[in-house]
Amino acid sequence: MTSAAHAQPTSTGPTASAGTRIHLPVWAWLLALLALGVLYLITQDNGAILAQLGDTTHEFFHDARHALGVPCH
Question: Is 70 within 8 Å of 43 (Cβ atoms)?
Fold first, then answer.
């Protein structure tokens, strides 16, 4: 005689464990590398690139650098 309280749960799909590796496609790694490169250029720009786009763009990124803690003065 079996009861519902003692029934074993059945697996309905794959479960993730702590050691499961997530495989990312190559384009995701390239996109992350591009984003890091752009972030580096923006934090290192002292007006040589962004100043030509206008004062508003330059000031926006200037203030963003200060918010990220990147010294620029």
Answer: yes
Supply the pLDDT for residue 2. 57
Question: Position 44: which residue type?
Answer: Q
What angle in degrees, to the nearest 10, is found between the helix axes of 55-68 and 26-44?
100
Assessment of whether the complete model's pTM goes beyond 0.85 = no
Residues 6+ apart with CB under 8 A from 64: 42
Closest CA to 41 of 20, 18, 14, 64: 64
Q: How far apart are CA 36 and CA 72, in angstroms?
A: 19
